[in-house]
Write a structure and sequence with these properties.
The complex is a heterotrimer of chains A (389), B (246) and C (306).
Chain A (H helix, E strand, L loop, with lengths): L1 H15 L1 H21 L1 H21 L7 E7 L4 H12 L3 E7 L3 H9 L4 E5 L3 H8 L5 E4 L4 H23 L23 H31 L1 H6 L5 H29 L9 H25 L3 H19 L11 H7 L3 H15 L3 H25 L6
Parallel strand pairs in A: 1-2, 1-3
Antiparallel strand pairs in A: 3-4
Helix pairs in contact in A: 2-10, 3-8, 3-10, 8-10, 8-11, 8-12, 8-14, 10-11, 11-14, 11-15, 14-15
Chain B lengths: L3 E12 L2 E12 L3 E6 L5 H8 L7 E6 L2 E2 L4 H7 E5 L10 H11 L4 H15 L14 H12 L6 E5 L7 H16 L3 E5 L3 H4 L4 E6 L2 E6 L1 H8 L4 H9 L7
Parallel strand pairs in B: 3-8, 3-9, 6-7, 7-8
Antiparallel strand pairs in B: 1-2, 1-4, 4-5, 9-10
Chain C lengths: L1 H7 E14 L2 E14 L3 E5 L6 H8 L7 E6 L2 E2 L4 H7 E4 L11 H11 L8 H11 L12 H13 L5 E4 L8 H16 L3 E6 L10 E6 L2 E6 L1 H6 L5 E5 L3 H9 L4 E7 L2 E6 L13 E4 L4 H12 L1
Parallel strand pairs in C: 3-8, 3-9, 6-7, 7-8
Antiparallel strand pairs in C: 1-2, 1-4, 4-5, 9-10, 11-13, 11-14, 12-13
Helix pairs in contact in C: 4-6, 5-6
Classes of the chains: A mainly alpha (389), B alpha/beta (246), C alpha/beta (306).
Amino acid sequence: MYKVWMKFSFIWQEKQNVPNSMKQFYHFIVKEFYHIFRDRKTLFILLGMPMVQIIIFGFALTNEVKNTKITIINQSEGASAARLVQKIESSRYFELYSQSTDAAQIDRLFKKGAVKIALVIPNDFDPSIVNQNKGQLQIIADATDPNVATALTNYLSVIVQDFQKELNSNNTIPYKMDVEARMMYNPQLKGAYNFVPGVMAMVLLLVCTMMTALTVVREKELGNMEILLASPINPIKIILAKAVPYLLLSIINITTILLLSYFVLDVPINGNLFLLYAESILFIMVSLGLGLLISAGTDSQQSAMFISLVAMFLPTVMFSGFIFPIENMPLPLRIISNFIPAKWFFIIVKSVMIKGVGLKLIWKETLILTCMMLFFFGMAIKKFKIRLA
Amino acid sequence: MHNKAIIVDKLSKQFGDFKAVDEISFEVAKGEIFGFLGANGAGKTTAMKMLCGLSMPTSGNAMVAGFDVYKDNESIKKNIGYMSQKFSLYEDLTVRENIKFYAGIYGIASAVIVEKTKQLLLQLNLEKEADLLVGQLPLGWKQKLAFSVAIFHEPQIVFLDEPTGGVDPITRREFWNLIYDAAAAGITIFVTTHYMDEAEYCNRVSIMVDGKVEALDTPANLKQQFNVQSMDEVFLHLARKAKRTE
Amino acid sequence: MAKLNSNHKAIIVDKVVKSYVNGKKKTIALDQISFEVAAGSLFGLIGPDGAGKTSLFRILTSLLLPDEGTVMVDGLNVQTEYKTLRQRIGYMPGKFSLYQDLTIQENIEFFASLFGTTFEENYDLIKDLYIQIAPFKDRRAGKLSGGMKQKLALCCALIHRPTILFLDEPTTGVDAVSRKEFWEMLQLLKAEGITIVVSTPYMDEATLCDQVALIQEGKILGIDTPEHIIEGFDKAIYAIKSPNMLQLLKLLEKDPAIEHVYPFGEFHHMVMKQKEVVITIPEDAVMHKIRPNIEDVFIDLMRSHA
């Protein structure tokens, strides 16, 4: 009889606490906001980082070729060669740095870093075109940065092909094939289309994963976690309350990134904006879950930071496809890339933002992220103990 | 001059309007055990930082080990040892590694380090524990080791900031034995403590209240002066007058 | 019947064992500890750092589970009924620094909200403490002095009106004056009917408790009222002093009639092997028989357990 009464009173007590429970949660979130707003420096970095990144990627770190300095070794004195030089000079991709007849100049200029590409027009260029319908050119590129070298070579080749077409238009050739390549979704081959989704993934991951991990671990370091655990607050509530402010902060960050890329970098938002936000929030949740999971297993801010950076940030940069194309990677790395949440988010954002597709075509990626989120949160809650070690 | 380890003359430190240390003056003789007492916030730590060459005074003069705190703070650092309860040894290094590290900082020759380490371990009865991580030692042992490391380079003066906090009563007395030995070897001891019985072990004691030195004498004379039985009462009598709450 | 008993006892600890495994080494933090704390009393755990006090506090506050033994706090089992227990206890851990970036007021209100109460609701309990820090209520906790932080911490631990208050080394590193004030505050709280368990490395604070447990290396060396503990010391103990204390100590250490001798403030304390014994002391030394204090008892117990 006594036992039953005890049990009843126990349940009754629990019920009594329900209205307080929401209030408790609310106060906890308010406290978290105090922490964030009072650490002005960190807040400034958190809100300023996306802007800085977008601007850096947008204007400095671009793969696009624009006004690149070129040196031309023109040993031919003919008219065709002169026309070719003029054509290159007038293109917006290249800027003529110097012109000479001495091939030894190339090495000197490369070493000096003055130019990254050189075009050699041999002395028999003109006669050869006229007499044999055939001309030879040599492109020499500084391949210390292979990506840049390839890009420059491609651009220069296109100009030469153009030039060739112009020459041919005068002659009549029995048949000819014109290949016209169309760059869908990004006709100007703008790098921004690729890195805006990349920056979004990076910023969200940094803010959510690292900051949530840090904020939980800080409680442990201060020794306040002991008091929180010895109080009636449910540990799950501690976890969620820690995540909420960063969720809001991240939504602000997404908005900043989208506004900047739309108005400053001219990246279109072709798909549904709500879908884009919804998918972003999903990715934020994945990152938050991950941050909380990291915090559950670490006791110092240092190790939390280290794990967030090494275990999450680097793989995101490497394996999301945002800088290095996944298709070109060896199989083991391609398999690893599947476990990186940012890879799926990157695909989703590119699809929605640039290609303008709907949920129908990205449901698979969305499902994967949802599973990841549930997994991380589940693990974090499971690992977060109701007692000390 | 030559038998004084520390000479402090109207030394002050001001933070804005707040006079943390307010014109304190005293002298400490070579080989003396000098107790530096005061309530939390009385200005002890600030004064000690100035004497260790870590913080510039606002006004006044001080000579530590024969060096001026304004000009020769680097020389001061070479000639003093420092130990506090909060900062002492690296918990993730072994006993031997800690000794080697601190000795190395003061530029002691390797051969000397090896020889003196042997002696030190013998003296502290830590030979078996030499290769254990410091974190695995009991607090009292750590504190004794930290003290020995602080005087390893044979400084003229050693500053001890609450060295015995939380240590058990027997180890606390063993710690004081080390202090006596060091003082007998000519090292001047400058020590703060919250244990009033330890104040009795000092040759002379100063008590700071609100940034000023309110009393300075031998424990016996202080008790006589205030007509009380223990240093505890002397301290309470003076510190209760403090107005400063910070 | 069982219920009646638990009303008398705020805490019942029965044969508690707790050990930690650190690498290959196993350290026993608590070794078969048993004791009881009467409701409404002030109970002191006296012992040096590393004696096991913090582990014991964590077990009592349901933060750690004992390896063996049972613990009942306020009639609740710490293992199974921790949810209810956590509503009723107040805890001030040793290493704990509040929220440095929150003001005094915000800290108190946050801790009140954790327990589903408000500052106003229990203001009368913390009033005496609060008015001392009230002039600085909008100052951030990180900018407070040690004594004020300690008062704030106590306010935070009390704001939900706990039935039992656990204070782990609240006076470590605190000066003698603030320590005295703190203990005066504890006496007031006791008068409010709150059971208080407090640990301290300062032996002189033991006399301020109703009951003390002397704890060393995970074992309770003795447990009783401070008076009984002192009365239980049945050896002859003398205080001695002379102009040269160090020389005197070295001399007495060699005397076979003395069990042990150690400095104690301005005197050396000598514990004799036999009750009635005559020893020769230097001419300039003064000696008199004394009543031991807690520290003397502790030193003696430590030696006999070593």
